[in-house]
Amino acid sequence: MFKVVFEKSVEKKFLKLDKNIQNQIALKIIELKNGNFHNDKPLKGNYKGKFRKRAGDYRIIYVKEDDVLIITLLRIAHRKEVY
Hints:
The protein is of the alpha+beta class and 83 residues long. It contains two helices and five strands, in the order βααββββ. The chain is globular, with a radius of gyration of 12 Å. The termini are far apart.
């Protein structure tokens, strides 16, 4: 089981989203918390060391810190504007 931590800006963005989208993203965050990293994609270039999880048309960008089992959500945005 992992601990999921929101950056303050991510939390604000999440709370401004439509409720249906929030529910979709929340299900994916629960998957992260449970350690389900299936189909998550490691990012390249400037984002090396970070991962992407798909939630419909939205992407969750996160960093997994193995030594303390913490996942920090860095960004939640529509796929057009996330990278």
